Amino acid sequence: MSGLFGELNNSVKALTAASRSVELVGRNLANVNNANYARQRVVYGDRGSVQTDIGVQSLGVEAVGIQQLRDTLLDAQVVRESSLQSSFEAEQSAYKNAQANLGQSVDRSGATSTTGSDGSTNGIAQGLSDFFNAFQSFSASPTDVGERQSLVQKAGILTDAVNEADQRLTQLQSDLTTQANSDVTDVNSTLKSIAELNGQIGRAEINQPGAAVDLRDQRQALVEHLATKMSIETKADPNFAGEIQVYARDASNNPVQLINLASTTGPVTLSGSVLSAGSPATADGGAAGDNTIAQAVANLASKSFSTPADSIDGTFSQYYSKTVTDLGQSLTTANAHVTSQTSIATLVKSQRDSVSGVSLDEEMADMIKYQRSFQASSRIISIIDDLLNTVVNKLGA
Question: What is the pLDDT of residues 12-25, one digit of tens each?
């Protein structure tokens, strides 16, 4: 179509396209603080062309769809790095709690601190030292009532310290198991939601791939949330528009499918570990004044255990010191991992935001551009209206 009526129709289409763009800019600005939102743009298309007496002419522009500005590679990197960051943070938190509940720490020189969790000097390391020193003193004066009372006191202090640490660590283990079970429930709920969104996206994009932009935002947010609970991988299915498959890795690094299109392949489960301990040993007492048992116990302070059947390696104090030191070193390593991974995750998210994030300056510039386009189209319609008025009402008058 050519002529004034054709240009009027083209201008109306251009006016509508500019209007859609202004509306979408307003939507972007409304979601500037929404971390799960990816900015959108109106996709323009030509309505075709027509042969006229002066050549081929365009039928004008129109808004043919909405494009979501996402980089699938950066999205995958954010999922991967967020998963690693959450894993290191969970490990760091567990080590911090274990160290606090054990009531011992390692100073910068690598020596085991004997400070208890309550700020006193009644840690297990100090208790062991006092216990063996008390037996050493008692073995020298087995009939001394004062030495005997001191021994009983030191033994009681060590026993209380060990029992308290055991109770706190047992409670920590229970808390971690409870948290893990809660996370498993959250994982299964998230997997179900992702599968449901997969189905909705697939149905919405049968005839127009990429059109379900809001549903894609919701799904990506859930995928990133799932990555904070477990390590996952996603892959787009080429045979189904917009739908993805979600995988995890087993202990042998083999892929395990969690989501297949619009359905989950089965719930994620957690098998806990059961810990058991041996029965306590007993010993008969000797005659009055006999220091054989006391001396034997005192000698345990310097006895080094190294056979495979032994539960410890080295002396009691060395083994305990090594246990605390290993825990401190593990915490230090976890802290380093968290610091490094947080920087990497922040960098990747910043790169993703540069593509998908809403920029106030850019949106305001686009708003002015679309506003001017709308005004120009309106002006053309007004001029054509005047021309048609002249043709219809004034020619021949």
Answer: 888 888 999 999 99
